[in-house]
Backbone:
């Protein structure tokens, strides 16, 4: 493998190091491939009694170094500081290893100077090194693992693309690393998209961009708090724009991510999930979700509201339901409720027209939480309900009941459309 | 079963049973829980030796099946459930290669190796989870069962008497059990559809045990989809055969039937409540509450027993009974006021307040409206005058006379 570099050349190498560190950082190859452990094996084999301590100490150092990168890679300005940090960590390596390390980095840097041929060479060398250091790598991963990637294995992809924006294309085969953006770039992309959404509010564009962002995370098998953040933001945007299909996709992913232990706004999304199940009227899912709630979660205002909504819908208590609709908690639940408000209104009207002889429009508008009388009249008009007038608008219960009964039966027969997204 | 001290005579007997198509006897020898003699166990413990002997003495694929089954038995009895499960899986896979060419005589073997696979998978998964590892054995078992199920349903033999279709319900029940355990209940629908589509002998011609289990699962699935009327039919059939046979099974069915009956207005009798402590603790309080119309008590009982009810999947059903409780309360008010045909909504509001449910007038009207719609009350409401106008005759009909909502 690598021979020790003579001491007098060390200064020259360190100079070059400062130049190449910028490149190395943007490539982020240090992230997923443990160069330290791969470079050391021979050395360790020589001093057999030092094997354990050297590998472990190197592993710890590699860990430390990686964490620092994770913190600094998200901001451009800290590039300089990270250079210094990188040098510091280099100094922390034992004397004899340092030369090897610098040699390693130099070799890597040289590769980055060319274009395609370098990429190819880099890939080939990568494969060779992987094969050589197989055992050590597995040992390292068994001990520490890559904190960003769940289910890490030899085929995990690391992207190299640096573009912030990328259109979404459904994959039909294994992706090309040159089109996939690595984690650091994706973080920048998220910030960029957040600003763009606030400014332009162009849903088609944003949805497309978020889908490609999610795709890049998936192919690199990156599952961490950043992934949770991405899915949460996309879910909220989808909710605001009424895109239930996309929201449901995000929700399923978030459920898995929370289960794996990643932190996010779990309570908020539990509340949304419950409301979504009320929308689809799936008793099994509702049962399963309620049985998993802890007493603490039940006290959360968002979840409490969702539970009351579910109860009101189950009991057919339209009064309570529309009260909850008029006074939602401080989250995006209202957007979810919008999707089944119409259905509940028809159900309520079916009941009301059976029980009342006449229903005054102001009363109906108030009970069913319409914005005002006109909106109510508009809705009834859409249902082809006859409105009469006598000192104020009203509808006749007896005459209009069959209409709403029929409408309600149509709805229950058809079932709820989940828009093709499981 | 006779104890064999050497493997070769054991295998020879198996070969005899295969040739004479004696499924029952053969199945009796292939149970993982059989305690073989130490001599036989010693021979099985040497994998290569055992495999050789099996290869030499048994026809093709039977050798793999029997070999894997014996290894599974060995591992199971030496407390290595994970290995045992793996071997049993191999056994099942090998048997699947034979199965398409076999007919009805082989079904007992089919039953025993699959039910052993279920048993071992559950044990293996339990152990893996206890050691914080990924447990996928039951899922793989489910796939194997599905394959076996397909072989049973799709049998193009002309003579039904010899067909593999006689094994369908057994394996279907096993699949239901597995899917419920895996919580992927939606997959059960595929099985039901396949059975409906397959041209099979009538359910009544199958062994009663299989019929009962199948009725139970059909009822349970319908119950979960809130089709209570249909569910009741199946569950009653299942109950007929479990009554007096197995207390555990009886209770499972009773816990499903009580909510269905409650919804249609039939309150469990005193005898039934005292039948078992679990019934009394869960439903006792609620029945009292419904009888007296005490909603506060009902809500309290519901909260206390939430966990139990969720376990039986009956929480959502019992919740619907709340309306019955309210109906009872309103009926009492009606009687107390002297069966007037015109009642003020405020009377009902007061009654609700009395039992601890403090609500606005509009919400009381809403509750009354729901009852009129459901048929619990015959009459109508006037919002302007805030009164409930009731029918002179039978204003509060018997709940049992109203069809299930």
Residues:
């Amino acid at each position: 493998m690598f021979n020790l570099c003579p001491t007098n050349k060390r200064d020259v190498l360190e100079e070059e190091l400062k130049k190449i560190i910028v490149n190395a950082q943007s490539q982020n190859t240090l992230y997923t491939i443990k160069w330290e452990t791969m470079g050391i094996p021979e050395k360790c084999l020589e001093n057999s009694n030092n094997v354990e301590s050297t590998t472990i100490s190197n592993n710890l150092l590699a860990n430390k170094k990686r964490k620092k990168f994770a913190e600094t890679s998200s901001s451009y300005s800290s590039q300089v500081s990270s250079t210094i940090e990188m040098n510091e960590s280099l100094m922390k390596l034992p004397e004899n290893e340092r030369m090897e390390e610098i040699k390693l980095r130099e070799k890597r840097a040289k590769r980055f100077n060319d274009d395609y041929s370098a990429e190819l060479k880099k890939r080939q060398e990568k494969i060779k090194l992987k094969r050589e250091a197989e055992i050590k790598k597995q040992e390292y991963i068994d001990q520490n693992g890559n904190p960003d990637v769940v289910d890490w294995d030899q085929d995990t992809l690391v992207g190299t693309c640096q573009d912030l924006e990328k259109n979404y294309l459904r994959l039909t085969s294994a992706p090309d690393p040159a089109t996939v953006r690595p984690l650091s770039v994706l973080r920048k992309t998220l910030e960029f998209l957040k600003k763009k959404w606030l400014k332009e509010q162009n849903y088609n564009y944003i949805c497309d961009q978020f889908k490609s962002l999610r795709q890049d995370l998936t192919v690199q098998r990156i599952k961490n708090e950043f992934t949770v953040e991405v899915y949460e933001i996309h879910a909220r945007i989808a909710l605001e724009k009424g895109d239930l299909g996309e929201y449901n996709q995000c929700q399923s992913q978030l459920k898995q991510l929370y289960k794996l232990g990643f932190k996010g706004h779990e309570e908020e999304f539990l509340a949304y999930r419950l409301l979504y199940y009320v929308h689809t009227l799936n008793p099994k899912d509702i049962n399963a979700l309620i049985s998993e709630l802890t007493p603490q979660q039940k006290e959360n205002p968002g979840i409490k509201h969702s539970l009351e909504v579910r109860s009101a819908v189950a009991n057919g208590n339209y009064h309570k339901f529309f009260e909850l609709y008029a006074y939602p908690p401080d989250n995006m639940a209202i957007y979810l409720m919008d999707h089944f408000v119409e259905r509940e209104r028809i159900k309520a009207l079916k009941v009301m027209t059976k029980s009342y002889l006449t229903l005054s429009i102001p009363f109906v508008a108030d009970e069913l939480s319409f914005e005002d009388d006109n909106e109510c009249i508009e809705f009834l008009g859409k249902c082809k309900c006859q409105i009469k007038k006598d000192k104020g608008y009203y509808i006749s219960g007896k005459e209009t009941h069959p209409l709403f009964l029929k409408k309600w039966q149509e709805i229950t027969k058809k079932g709820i459309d989940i828009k093709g997204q499981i | 079963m006779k104890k064999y001290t050497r493997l070769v005579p054991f295998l020879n007997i198996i070969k005899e049973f295969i040739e004479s198509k004696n499924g029952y006897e053969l199945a009796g020898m292939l149970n993982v829980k059989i305690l073989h003699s130490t001599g036989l166990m010693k021979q099985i413990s040497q994998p290569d030796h055992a495999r050789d002997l099996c290869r030499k003495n048994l026809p093709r694929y039977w050798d793999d099946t029997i070999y894997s089954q014996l290894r599974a038995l060995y591992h199971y009895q030496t407390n290595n459930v994970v290995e045992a499960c793996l071997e049993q899986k191999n056994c099942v896979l090998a048997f699947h290669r034979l199965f398409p060419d076999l007919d009805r005589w082989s079904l007992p073997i089919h039953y025993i190796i699959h039910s052993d696979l279920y048993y071992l998978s559950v044990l293996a998964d339990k152990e893996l989870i206890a050691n914080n590892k990924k447990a996928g054995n039951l899922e793989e078992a489910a796939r194997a069962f599905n394959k076996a199920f397909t072989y049973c349903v799709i049998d193009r033999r002309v003579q039904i008497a010899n067909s593999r279709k006689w094994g369908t319900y057994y394996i279907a029940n096993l699949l239901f059990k597995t899917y419920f355990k895996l919580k992927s209940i939606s997959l059960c629908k595929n099985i039901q559809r396949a059975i409906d589509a397959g041209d099979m002998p009538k359910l009544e011609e199958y062994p009663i045990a299989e019929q009962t289990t199948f009725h139970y699962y059909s009822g349970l699935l319908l119950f979960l989809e809130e089709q209570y009327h249909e569910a009741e039919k199946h569950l009653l059939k299942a109950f007929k055969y479990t009554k007096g046979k197995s207390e555990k099974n009886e209770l499972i069915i009773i816990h499903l039937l009580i909510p269905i009956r409650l919804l249609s207005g039939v309150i469990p009798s005193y005898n039934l409540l005292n039948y078992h402590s679990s019934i009394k603790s869960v439903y006792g309080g609620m029945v009292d509450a419904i009888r007296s119309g005490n909603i506060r008590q009902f809500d309290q009982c519901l909260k206390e027993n939430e966990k139990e009810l969720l376990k039986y999947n009956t929480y959502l059903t019992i919740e619907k009974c709340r309306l019955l409780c309210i109906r009872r309360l309103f009926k009492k008010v009606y009687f107390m006021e002297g069966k007037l045909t015109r009642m003020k909504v405020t009377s009902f509001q007061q009654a609700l307040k009395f039992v601890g449910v403090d609500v606005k007038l509009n919400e009381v009207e809403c509750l009354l409206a729901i009852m009129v719609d459901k048929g619990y009350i015959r009459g109508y409401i006037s919002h302007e005058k805030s009164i409930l106008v009731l029918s002179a005759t039978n204003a509060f009909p018997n709940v049992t006379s109203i069809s299930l909502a």
Notes: The first strand of chain A starts at residue 358 and ends at 360. Chain A is about 70% helix and 0% strand.
